[in-house]
Amino acid sequence: MPIVRLKDVRAMSPEDRRKRLTELRTELVRLRTMIKAGGAVENPGRIRELRKAVARILTIESEQPKLAKEATEKEKKESKKP
After folding, report:
1. What is the pLDDT along the chain (82 residues), one digit of tens a residue?
2. Complete domains list, the chain, with CATH
3. Cα 12 to Cα 21: distance, rounded to the nearest angstrom
């Protein structure tokens, strides 16, 4: 089960997304440090899920300006139609 779902990430405000991203990255660093120190991780699959969750959030972050730009262009075209 994913840590964060795509629809939930899209519904978050940019501020909440950045906060969640920081939390996930912190946890990922903590788990990687444990592995490097020779410790056993409780759930090794968690690392993969964290990486995917970070990627999901970053993808949405990069999409938002593009979607906003497309929406304004679409509105301009519609307003020019007679």
Report:
1. 578 899 999 999 999 999 999 999 999 999 999 999 998 888 999 999 999 999 999 999 998 877 777 777 777 777 776 6
2. 6-80 (1.10.287.310)
3. 12
